[in-house]
Amino acid sequence: MSTNLSGKYAIVGVGQSPLGKVPEMGPIGLFAVAARNAIEDAGLTKQDVDGLITRGPDDVYCHHQRVGEALGLNVTFSTSTANGGASQTMAVAMACMAIEAGVCNTVVVGYGRDTWSRTHRNAEAKQAVASRPRTYSEFGSEFGQFGAPVNYAIAARRHMERFGTTKAQLGAIAVAFRNHARRNPHAFMQKPLDLDEYLSARLIVDPLCLYDCSVFIDGAGAVVVTTAERARDLRQPPAYVLGFGFGNRLSGWFTDDNMITTGAREAGEAAYKMAGIGPRDVDTAQVYDCFTHMVLLQLEDYGFCAKGEGGPFVASGALEAGGVLPTNTSGGQLSEGHIEGMLQVLEGARQVRREHTPDRQVKDCNIALVTGHGGNTVCQSALILGREAG
């Protein structure tokens, strides 16, 4: 059996729910809306779907079963993933592998979460959440460490000390993505942002300020994956899956140099090899941007610049619409909204389908790199989408 799946499978439908403040819908409902829209976008019906791979809130037991019930699906393969923000790109790869194994033919992949609504509960509901048992983390609240920004702030500071990276360079990332979001009518953050405003923003955890952090919203996204042969007869131009790869530094964020050279290096090497391309062939990157610093790290680890040169690279305007690597062209999690990287999968597919208006479309876009990052900060996944099967 062939182990190279490049070009054999494709994303044939994309869909999303309303984004932003959507208190009338929970995570299952948001997911169901996105999945329904993706199935319709592909020109299919739910009877055509026989696979489901989901990611949702950690406290929803057997999430894929709940979503399947909401959609009225009976499938031959379904599961939920647990690699955090690395799950969504990984799930597209899993869909390809499941179809290759013969256990299903057409798979819905997606993510949904009501993060804004969860953080705006009444006092009683917030107390109920706070009283849940804490999950394991490498270092936790017993050491005075609270929240994800702490881990990432330590990594950002280490990069600054080692390579001379500056706050203004991180700001170039936030400003570029806000510029993209302002062209996206669905993006949550539409207000203009310039470097002066970025530099004067309040600190969250030094050196990370307000605009270094992604924006938690309610929302969901979904895609439909099937074979390249079937894709040719469907409604939309396919976004072919040319390559994928993974790199999981399970030894821990604080071990060795894992927070400076991440699993993105291994993920990128595997994805490029499968696709038969290199970084210079990528027309647009949709990079997991939970924090600005993670964009810079991944750009280095995926080979767009040398290690330590991410700061000058982003400050050059490389990520802007007219730059050498238009990145997070829908606004990313920093400005469109944090849906754990699922919207970046959608944007990568939309760019290679060339469906945007000229002000949002990357010219002559043939290849998109989509990345995922998460879990206990150590998991990376990479997905390469192409306009042609290769």
Q: Architecture of one domain, according to CATH?
A: 3-Layer(aba) Sandwich
General form: globular
Strand order across the biggest sheet?
Answer: 3-2-4-7-1-8-11-10-9
Mean pLDDT over all positions: 91
- What letter string, H or E per element, gives the SSE order? EHEHEHEHHHHHEEEHEHEHHHHEE
- The proportion of residues forming helix, as a percent range, comes to 25-40%
CATH superfamily of one domain: Thiolase/Chalcone synthase
| Alpha-carbon Rg, integer | 20 Å
Number of strands: 11
Cα-to-Cα separation, first versus last residue: 19 Å
Quote the CATH topology of one domain.
Peroxisomal Thiolase, Chain A, domain 1
Helical element count?
A: 14
Structural class: alpha/beta
List the uncertain runs. Answer: 128-136
Main sheet summary: 9 strands, mixed
Q: What does this protein look like?
A:
- The protein is of the alpha/beta class.
- The protein is built from 14 helices and eleven strands.
- The protein has helices spanning 27-41, 63-71, 87-100, 115-118, 123-130, 148-163, 167-181, 195-199, 228-231, 264-275, 292-301, 310-315, 332-335, 342-353; strands at residues 9-16, 51-55, 77-80, 107-114, 203-205, 208-209, 218-227, 239-248, 284-286, 367-374, 379-386.
- Strands 3-2-4-7-1-8-11-10-9 form a nine-stranded mixed beta sheet, sandwiched between helices.
- Helix 7 crosses helix 11 (292-301).
- The longest helix is centred in the middle third of the chain and has 16 residues, at 148-163.
- It starts with 8 loop residues before the first strand and ends with a strand.
- Residues 128-136 have low confidence and may be disordered.
